[in-house]
Amino acid sequence: MDDKAMDLLKRLMEAFGPSGFEREVSALTKEYMEPYSDEVIADKLGTVTFVARGSADRPRVLLAGHVDEVGFIVSSITDEGFLTFNPLGGWWSQVLLGQRVVVRTNRGDVHGVIAAKPPHILPQEERKKLVELKDMFIDIGAASKEETEATGVKIGDPVVPWSPFSVIQDGKVAMGKAFDDRIGAFVLMEAIRRIKEQGIAHPNTVYGAATVQEEVGLRGAQTIAHVVDPDVALVLEVDIAGDVPGIKPHQAPTRMGKGPGLITFDRSMIPNQPLKEFIIEVARQAQIPLQLSQMYGGGTDAGRIHISRAGCPTAVITVPTRHIHSHVGLLSLRDTENAVRLIIELVKRLDAETVEGFTAL
User: Fold this and answer.
1) Which helix (DSSP H) or strand (DSSP E) does residue 83 occupy?
2) Whole-angstrom Cα distance, residue 201 to residue 54?
3) 254-283 burial string, b = 16+ CB within 10 Å, else e?
4) Contact between 239 and 293 (Cβ < 8 Å)
5) What per-residue string of b and e applies to 97-130 under the rule 16 or more CB within 10 Å gives b?
6) Residue 237 dihedral angles phi and psi, to the nearest 5°
7) pLDDT on residue 119
8) How many CA atoms lie within 13 A of 192 on its CB side?
9) Per-residue confidence band for 131, with pLDDT thresholds at 50, 70 and 90
10) Fewer CB under 10 Å: which end of the chain, C or N?
11) Where are the alpha helices (DSSP H) in 70-178?
12) Is residue 124 scored above 90 in pLDDT?
């Protein structure tokens, strides 16, 4: 990936955008993609979609990656000036304590840390118990409710992890927040940019959607699928990289650095089978490594897209990522590059006859 792509990756991941508060990220994607789009459309929920016209209006190929990240929302301010909070998306409470966060107010950003009662004053039995999210608070350094309110913080303000983007392992691995799922949005944006810059022919019209509110119920996927009315859809997502201690292969089959993944089943969608086999064959022809995966405990935007209107053949292509839904994730830039390559190869081959074959009996 060139310097322009790496700069976009850093800006995307460091942007502020939990579910329901994606405006900063959406504006960033729009600014970047306008030069490479024949048209930019949006739904009324906030999903921004970039149109790349090929040699035919149909089939319409929807590429979707959500730009919201897991975060929090302020639920109250205590008399002592601490913030209680509710989750936006799924969090495992064990990854939260001691982590820095950013609260966005209408006066600017306020930094804080997630904390709880210190273990030093807890009875021995209580020390052994996991601290639940409901017993945590955000400390912004204030000494009273009045001091906190003076910063501009109020109930309903959004919160995200503070986690600068960086590249490690001699440039092979990216580390930061919000890979779930801005890496998917990045892949579709980079694929469309290359299609336009390199004049790559494609027998269809591509709609690249930066969807919103995925983490709280796949909401943006539902609205943009209605707007676009796609004939086929490829959702770009993260996958749970299983190459960490304690995970067995059947629990998370993909490995970081071994290529993008193709989800064969999750709790929100069983993919269209001819489309699945088509993706496997294209990856083989293009000599792009591809890992087959399942994700029993999760779902993606595909869960809504594939049942939109009369239904839409849909599949999910992933970038295996370690430590999702935490302050710091890790992924392979080679896997990311291969995901971009795979999307381009698929778009080149998705003509009307091929797409019609996905649902023919």
Assistant:
1) strand 83-88
2) 6
3) bbbbbbbbbbbebebbebbeebbebbeebb
4) yes
5) eebebbbbeeeeebebebbbeeeeeeeeeeeeee
6) -145, 175
7) 67
8) 33
9) confident
10) C
11) 124-127, 145-150
12) no
pLDDT in tens, 263-321: 999 999 999 999 999 999 999 999 999 999 998 888 999 999 999 999 999 999 999 99
Domains of the chain: which residue ranges?
Answer: 3-69+177-357, 72-161
Domain 3-69+177-357 coded CATH 3.40.630.10: yes
Q: Is the dihedral of CA 255, 260, 263, 267 positive or negative?
A: positive
What does the alpha-carbon distance between residue 116 and residue 195 come to, in Å, rounded to a whole number? Answer: 50
* Cβ neighbours around 139 below 10 Å, total: 17
CA distance 147 to 292: 53
Q: CA–CA separation, 1 vs 64, rounded Å?
A: 21
Q: Do 331 and 238 form a contact (C-beta atoms < 8 A)? A: yes
Which phi and psi angles does 277 have, rounded to 5°? -65, -35
How many Å apart are CA 338 and CA 317, to the nearest integer? 11
Tokens 């580390």 correspond to what residue? 175
Q: Which residues are annotated as catalytic?
A: 214
3-state secondary structure of 67: coil
CA torsion, ordered 92, 238, 251, 258, to nearest 10 deg: -140
pTM: 0.95
Per the prediction, the chain carries an average pLDDT of 96
For residue 270, what are its two tokens? 């069983």
What top-level class would CATH report for the domain 72-161? Answer: mainly beta
